[in-house]
Every structure is written in C-alpha cells, then in structure tokens.
Amino acid sequence: MTDILSTYVSPITQERRITTAIPGPKSVALQKRREAVVASGVASALPIFAERAHGAIVVDVDGNQFIDLGAGIGVVTIGHTDAAVIEAASKQLTELTHAMFTITPYESYVRVAELLAEHTPGDFAKKSVLLNSGAEAVENAVKIARSYTRRSGVAVLDHAYHGRTNLTMAMTFKAMPYKTGFGPLAPSVFHAPGSYPYRDGLSGADAAARTITYLEKSIGASDLACVVAEPVQGEGGFIVPADGYLVALQEWCTANGVVFIADEVQSGMARTGKYYASEHFGLVPDMIITAKGIAGGLPISAVTGRAEIMDAPHKGGLGGTFAGNPVAAAAAIAVFDEVERRNLLAEASRIESILKPALHALALKYPIIGDVRGIGAMIAIELVQHGSLTPNPAAVAAVAAYAAQHGVILLTAGTLGNVIRFLPSLVISDELLADAIGVIDDAFASL
Ligand SMILES: *Cc1c(COP(=O)(O)O)cnc(C)c1O
C-alpha cells in the first residue's frame, strides 16, 4: 500500500485528527480578515483554512487533520504534494518559469501534447492546444469546432457543467449560482435533454433518440458545430448515462458533420480507472478536454483532437499568455509518468471496490440514499425523501456539515443539491477510506 504514496517524506501522518472546535481559532481569525477583503461572491464549502496537505490528508491552520474525499474537486488525483510533481515543478522553476509558447516555444509543451495524443482514445493523428483552466479549454474547443465546421451552434446536455466564463456559463445548466444576474449569456448555446437513468428511467437508445430529436427539430444539424458532453457528469451529480447513450449520440454527430467533444475536465486523467471515462463507454470523441487532474494541482488544461479538426483555425488563432506554462507542463509530465510507474489506474478501481459496497450497505441502512453510482474514484450517492424521488438537499447539507466537524472533507453536487460525491486521491489508503465511511455512517445516524 505504501508504494502508491508519494516518496516525498512529509511530516503529515495519513490519519484523521481533530483537536479544536471546527472551525478552530486561527480559522475563525482568518475568516474575519477574509470577510474584509475577499469578494463575497467567492464562497467556500468548509469553514476551515488549509495550511498543508499530503497524500489524502489536509491539515488546517489549527493543526486539525482532515481526510480529503474531494481532492480539490478531483485535482490532486495522485495525492497532495506528490514527490514527483514537487521535483519536476521545482526544477522547472529554476530553469524556465515562463517563456510564452507563442514567442519562444519549449519542449515540455510539446511533450505534454505527445502524452495527450498517446493517452486519449482513438488511433488517429491527434494534436493539442494547452490552456490554463477547464473553462478556457472548453471555450477553445468550441472555437476550433466552429472554425472547422463553419457553423455556430453549440449543444450541451441538461445538468452539464462547463465553467464560469461568459461562453461556458451559458453552456452550464444550473442558473444558481453560475448564471443568475450575470447575463447577457452567449448566444447559439442549446441545452438538450440527456440521460439520467435514476430519474428518467430511459434506456440509452431511448434517451439518445430524445436528445437527437431535440437536436434535429429545435436546432437543426446544419447549424450545429458541436455537441459537448461530459461522459460522466461532474457538478450535475456524477450522472452515468445509460448504456449506449453516448455512442448513439456520437454516431448521430458523425453522420451529420457535427464535432463530438467530450468534456473530461473532471472525469479524465485516471479518475475512473482509465485515462478517460470515454473508454468505459467505447467512446472515441473527436475532441477531448483535459484539466483538473492533469498536473497534480498546477493550473494547465488541454484540448486534444483529430489533427484535421485541431488544425482548422488560422495561424495565431489560438494561444494565451500563461497557456501551457512550463512549470505546470513539467508537473503534467510528472503526473503522466507517475500514473504509469505506480499503476495508479488500478487504484481507482480499488477505491470503487471499497466505496461501492460500503455505500450500498449504507443505502440499505438509510433508505434516503436513493442511488449509488459512478465509476472508479468518481462515486456518488443521491439523497431523496424516503420512498420517493423527491430530492433531499437538507440531508446532504447536514451529512457534509457533520463530516466536516468530524474531520472528513465531503463534497456535494447535483442540479438539485442532493448528491454527495466521492472523488478522493487515488493514493488514499483502505484504512482512511474505512475511517471516512465510518464517519459518514455516523452522520446519517445523527440525522
Ligand atoms: C471544473 C470543470 C470545468 C471548469 O474548469 P475550471 O478549471 O474551473 O475552469 C469544466 N468542465 C467540467 C466537466 C468541470 O468539472
């Protein structure tokens, strides 16, 4: 077990330990400073301030140790302060911190593009552009698809999350908190019904037929540049589409000259036990978007796609000052190397094999757990009123608050606010997972 942990010798032990009230006095003091100078639109899920972290443990400024089941929303997939990431990024900092690829290119950018070409699905020639954030990558994928197709329409699915910039907030499903009051929204974005087996009960074929009818009748294929879909929806509540849904949707896209884009910002980079969740569905997207987990916490993202599509924009049409920064690129190379060297894909499957049965057992005990779903280290439970599909966001909030009080960082999700999602680092030990599940069990018992 220890060989999957980073070789960086951290003073932080991999255990949960709460020694003050939550929040502790130093967090309370920082909260006061924060309120004076940080815009209140920036909200935080937990009342504690983080100071250090390693592996699957976050230590707050009061010395409390939390089991991290969120990994910064699936970013530190190979663990906090991974040795290889620290080493690669530190070395790069001293050699070349910034150059701007569009002025003087450097090797690490090229290497990241090679690794993406190798590890994304599809046996065709691929090219990439590197950016800073998930939203920026989504924006660039849309630009490229529009340039390639000479069409403007962008279709997304209900419950989707694609970011907070002007174009991507229009693509995101949920009005509150992402869009309300921030309009006007970007035009030519269409929200199609997707596949949500727990709530719609549709087969993949029937859900795809419903989506395709919407695309054909409400938008018209000839005006549609791209369909953008998360193979497993993230913020929407880890919704796994019914079997056959995604492939049927892509086949329709291919037949109609529409670029099929997989937004794998959350589901990609080893999260589900494969490099990309698309692989679980036999899906080979024309373009795939990578961000969150790619660089162990450093900001970098990518659009990777069929070479002929990626080459559609004119020279100089793509770029950005910090895009593909050398330090972040070095960290991304280290993450790819470590996933291979330590066989971390298998760790996602290990986590699923522990979490799924444990959560099914909790669902028997607590019937407000209406659904247990997800793949690999991307697992969720959906809470409802007993005996119905009526969402139960109050129970989600109470369980998450109890968990925080007892040293477990638990993230919520879902359009209806009634999903708890588990996306721990792949290096979390069996013991920490069992300990966290015990806390969650107590949390449900306390309701
Ligand atoms: C987080 C996320 C984004 C946005 O990424 P940022 O880096 O926050 O801009 C886009 N798509 C999906 C699926 C995400 O989970």
TrEMBL record:
GO biological process terms held by the UniProt record: gamma-aminobutyric acid metabolic process
Matching CDD domains: OAT_like
PROSITE patterns found in the cross-reference section: AA_TRANSFER_CLASS_3
Matching InterPro entries: 4NH2But_aminotransferase_bac, Aminotrans_3, Aminotrans_3_PPA_site, Class-III_PLP-dep_AT, PyrdxlP-dep_Trfase, PyrdxlP-dep_Trfase_major, PyrdxlP-dep_Trfase_small
Catalysis performed (reactions): (S)-3-amino-2-methylpropanoate + 2-oxoglutarate = 2-methyl-3-oxopropanoate + L-glutamate; 4-aminobutanoate + 2-oxoglutarate = succinate semialdehyde + L-glutamate
Any coiled-coil regions, as ranges: none
Entry's EC annotation: 2.6.1.19, 2.6.1.22
Enzyme class: transferase
PANTHER family, alphabetized: AMINOTRANSFERASE CLASS III
Name of protein: (S)-3-amino-2-methylpropionate transaminase
